[in-house]
Amino acid sequence: MAGKDVIFISCGILREELEYLVREKALDMSLVFLDAALHVNFDLLKTRLVETLEEHYLPGRRLKVIYGHCHPEIMEIVGRYGAQKIAAGNCLEALVGAEEISRLNAEATSFFLSVGWVNNWEAMFTLGRETLGFDFKDMFVHYKRIIVFDTGVIPIDEKKVEQFSGVTGLPVERKKIALDHLLDLLRRL
Question: pTM to 2 decimals?
């Protein structure tokens, strides 16, 4: 899957899951993580992603990007470096697949959280407010619930989940998941 001539550049939102897979599945992956909060500001995300691709781009080296469509130009950006992007629209789809997201949303319009999201939502909201003046509370009016995907890789900070529920005014449900879908996407990348 990898080797020394392959660099995986990932959103930090999947750090724990990817590090777990490297350890537990003995994956030979060189991982570089970008700050999980970057996706709330397209300019910052583009700048950091381009800087990281530039830093690791060498003739003969393959670059693989573990991001969803978190920036409207992401395919153009990764294409400039001959990089490949994981086949997922976002980090939650990377964990469970687009079909499962659609199925759960058909039950009730849901806002999905991974443990990475649980651990980083405050930093994301802070960066969004500071750089864009964005009021995140308004973005949750159409949702009916929060679903937290529990991989069992690291404990979920229940206090942060409660705080997120309080900010959004939404009830929380938990769904245990395996990392099989993410592992399959990595192997196909």
Answer: 0.87
